[in-house]
Specification:
Layout lengths: L6 E5 L5 E5 L4 E5 L2 E2 L3 E2 L1 H11 L3 E5 L9 H20 L4 E4 L1 H8 L7 H11 L15 H16 L1
Parallel strand pairs: 1-6, 6-7
Antiparallel strand pairs: 1-2, 2-3, 4-5
Helix pairs in contact: 1-2, 3-5, 4-5
């Protein structure tokens, strides 16, 4: 039986997601939170331990002009939680800028949220882009799926 490689893409924001891809299956979860604003590192660890990915791609993000100090501190804490979980589980990962994965995956498109949603809907029609109790596709899931596809290309 051939080896089915497992890759995961992580959009590390509170409104982000984790997406697991193999040659035959896909799974997405919105970023697990404790309360309203803290990323749940334990839930992320459970997801990763269950699937034991060969490679994870995490979006490398930075502060943008106009963002508040408190929101950036909260975001940075969550970003660190994701990296800490990956390090503690000894899972190989790469930090990839949005420009890098969008250039590779969304070439020939507008490279915006709608382009990512369209790409994922066409490439992975069985991947649920609209979480329960939502009416529109979740762009964090789409971005994480694109990053997982980028991880596949890295392998």
């Amino acid at each position: 039986m051939p080896y089915d490689r497992v890759v995961v893409g992580i959009d590390p924001g509170k409104k982000g997601a984790l997406v697991r891809l193999t040659d035959s299956t896909q799974e997405a979860i919105v970023m697990p939170l404790k309360g309203a604003k803290d990323i749940d590192g334990f839930a992320i660890a459970q997801f990763l331990k269950q699937h034991r990915p060969d490679m994870v791609v995490v979006e490398k993000v930075a502060a943008r002009p106009g963002q508040g100090v408190t929101s950036m501190f909260t975001f940075g804490t969550g970003y660190g939680v994701v990296q800490g979980v990956l390090d503690s589980l000894a899972i190989p990962y790469r930090l990839i800028t949005p420009q890098m994965w969008k250039k590779a995956i969304l070439a020939g498109t507008t490279r915006d949220k709608e382009a990512a949603i369209g790409y994922v809907a066409n490439r992975y029609p069985d991947l649920e882009l609209t979480p329960p109790r939502c009416r529109v596709p979740h762009d964090g899931i789409a971005d994480a799926a694109c990053m997982a596809e980028f991880a596949r290309q890295l392998l």
